Amino acid sequence: MVSSIRPLDESVVNKIAAGEIIISPMNALKEMMENSIDAGATALDILVRDGGMNLLQVTDNGSGINKEDMPLLCERFTTSKLTKFEDLESIATYGFRGEALASISHIARVTVTTKTVEDKCAWRVSYAEGRIIGEPKPVAGKDGTVILVEDLFYNMPSRLQALRSPSEEYAKILDVVGRYSVHCDHVAFSCKKFGDSQFSSTVRADSSTEERIRVVFGNAVARSLLHFEMKPLEELDITRVTGKVSNLDFTFKKSTTPVFFINNRLVTCNPLARALRQIYANHLPKGSKPFIYLSIQINPQVLDVNVHPTKREVRFLHQDEIIEKIAHELNDVLSNIDSSRSFKASTILTGKSLNSTQRTSSRASSAISKSSQPQIRGYALNAPTIVKRHENKLVRTDASQAKITTFLNPGQSQAASQQTAEEQILEYPELTDNKQPTGSAAEDTQVHSSQVAAHNDKALNYQNSAQERVDVNLSSVKRLREAVDNSAHRDLTDIFANLIFVGVVDPERRLASIQHDLKLFLVDYGAICYELFYQICLTDFANYGKIIVESESDDDLKLVNILSGFEHLTKDFALTIVQKLWDMREMLAEYFAIDFTAHTEAPNLEEIKLKSIPLLLKGYTPPFAKLPFFIYRLGTKVNWDNEEPCLDGIMRQISLLYIPEVIELVDTSNEDVLKEERIHFVTRSEEMSSALENVLFPCIKRRFLAPHNLLKDVIEIANLPGLYKVFERC
After folding, report:
1. How far apart are CA 19 and CA 102, in angstroms?
2. pTM of the predicted model, to two decimals?
3. Tell me: the pLDDT tens digits for 697-728?
4. Where is this region: Disordered (predicted)?
């Protein structure tokens, strides 16, 4: 049976409305304080018991309430602030709907004592469910109004149970009182618990904004304040923006919700908060939180205050433009002072006297500290500091230290980057040696290190050529570089900049492990190297070294022969690829060090040979087994018609060529596997591990900007405190 539609009982409607407006004691107090400020009060005294659930009282010295108006005081939609809807366009008071006291009276017991200047005595009356109980009674009292709210949510047990503990609700009350205390000049605020002899918060009427912030948020905030003010923006209907923000010496770790007043209304403007926090994130150390207080005055005609039951949100025109202007101004203010910082620092003394060598080192270290930016002032050198050793948070490796094995690798001591281009001459054996390794079951199954060394004797021959560095002014390249900068993930970049290479986990899936601080990560070094080499391509655009490709037979370097390994590729299509690359040879040679050679200017396409490919990183050679794929994709996957996609596509293909190749796992203890195959696997694995440890990851630490899309390729697999919980040692 379908239920019939019928109107709700008036008491149900009123309770529902009250539940939307009064969510907690803090909301009730906020509404009462705003009424007092609208009445011209210069002093507010607040009394709270049981977090406001049992008793909530606000006493002010405002204009009071006329005795004739008291019957309408707690009825819904009765107000003295406006008469028609259009008045909202010029509203300058906190209240306007006439719902606050009405809502409170439907969920609590309300008693009002008030006196105007003209009255000879005060008048007291109680309210329930929006209606007056009896007639106002004359009592002794001062000018102003006292609103007493008792037993909040007494008739809504579910809402009462949802409230937090009295102490937490009282903390919310102190927070909202503090925020109004900061903003409302010439208004005194005091708040205390019922029965306490001392006030929890007291702000005098003549206190400055800085003093109010000190009382509410503490000395640390008050000492680090900057005055913030913007000129009026008439085109955006902004008449005034002023406030106080923390400077760059402020290192508060606890996050504080920004204090925003828009047209004197306490609001939570999340887009503005995010924008300003992002500005601070670019200047403050990681983990530091700023303090922000802003008062924004907007033309009331472009401001909509009637968008939220609790009035915690407003809407205004040109919101994005206004937020951008404020954020830009804040960035300018912080940038102008970002020349000196103060950090807390102390020396850790073990109790032993310093020898002469240590004293010399200390003086040198101090000199370096003084010359570096940002400046560090105020070292605590007066007394030794005893620091407790926490084994579960002790980092036993230093990312800045080198391993002794790096000194055993020839050629690694040379500079990694030079101003002159370099040439590397390498043979291309993959096209000439197609024989499979052979062996017998009777041969030894053990792979000896001497045998591996014999296979791993590939010396790199570098030749320097005097070539000045070319300055590139292509707008397309600049845009690609900016895109890389904008996509950088700050925390991930920090992990890579301070990593310690642990080792290769799985060469077949290209997984390696790295350590950062107390954490161990599993990373996809294939994906990381792809982004690294792409960034190298952009940074060194048109300034690459060359890898001169040589082979025992010149026929092996012909492009058609390089492409002949693709069974699905017809000869005509292969010649089409060769023709495209030959047509673009001048650009490829000038920008990318990719050279092709032929005997004549208009050669037979089948005679065109590969002469060189770019050298991106000294000490690392790309896998030549991927050269056919490089030539094929260069001819088929690049958009040659538009400049920016073309250059980007070529650099992407070069990056793919340089990614370390997949090494299929081989069980070296299995006697059924040929000995040569096992030696080949061990050789390639050791070469790859050495390249990653001594060349690739050191380069990643120096110059890599980790993009956001690498987050999926970096996984935390362990951390030292977590291991201590399990093993109690490490």
Report:
1. 11
2. 0.48
3. 999 999 999 999 999 999 999 888 777 777 66
4. 354-374
